[in-house]
Every structure is written in C-alpha cells, then in structure tokens.
Amino acid sequence: MPTTEANDRVQLVFSLFDANGNGVLEADDFDLMGKRVVAAVPEAGDGTQGRMLDAFRHYGETLVRELDANGDGQISPEEFTAIVLDPRRFDAAVDKFADALAAMGDPNRDGFVERPHFIALMLAIGFQRPNIDALFDAFEPVDGDRIPVRTWADGIRDYYHPEKAGIPGDHLTAGWKR
Angle at which helices 4-17 and 27-40 pack, to 10 degrees? Predict the structure, then answer.
C-alpha cells in the first residue's frame, strides 16, 4: 500500500515533469525537461547527455504506454498516480532514468557527484534549493562534499517505491504545497 510520503513524492514529481505547465504530461514535457537537465551540466560528455535525453524520452514513452487510459497521448494527474500503485511496471524506465541522471552529475567520471552538479541538475528539474541541500546532506557526503553516483541512483529508485517512507527523497517534498 502506498505511503503518504509516496503519494506526496508522486504528486510533486508530476508537477515538475509537467514542464510546460498545461496540467498533463506529454512527450514535449519530457523533451523540454531533458534539455533543461542536459544544459545544467554542460561539461558532461555528449554520450552522457545523449543517455539523459534518451532516458527522459523513454520514461515519457513508458508512461504513455502504461498509463494513458483514454489513448489521448497525455497523462493526467489521475492516470499518473497509478505509478505508486504498481511500480514494477516502471522499474526499467526508472532504472534507466536513475542511472542517466546520476551519471550527468559525474562529468569527470570519478564515481562521485559533487554538490554543485547535484544542485544544478535538481534545480533544472525544478526542486527547491533548501530541499535539494537537505537531500544531498541525507546522502551523507564524503570528503570533498560529494556522494557516490550509485547512492544517488539508488535514492532515485527508492523515490518511486510506494512502500518506502523515511527515505532521503522525502526531503524533496518538505514544505511543498499541493
């Protein structure tokens, strides 16, 4: 059963992924969001940027295929909430997205995401700065104020699991108004 925290996480992510603000998710939203995220870390290599754009596109296509109940090519907020009810339908898309986003934060490929890259990427998605800092701190940064790429990727995966509560990703919903 989805936790209250999971429902809050999903509602927040819907509002952020609605990049053009028209109240539904559609292919243009994922293209726009992908371009914003790629622009946030220009020093990431072309291959990494391409993986990120592909992951956004794949995520959007998966949502339409799995959630578009009325076949209009758009995902309403009501259709989107199904992601918290059956995350197994989205594991592959979330895995691809998590790995690509975490890799964007590691442009020098040393296996770590430094705070400035993390902040730039999360701001590009639309999260609030105090929440971003709280999330980064919850990942327990190591010397040099950085976190392992795998830690962030796993944190993204946790964000989409309805049974989880008290996870680092819950910092992103603090103070968020529906």
Answer: 90
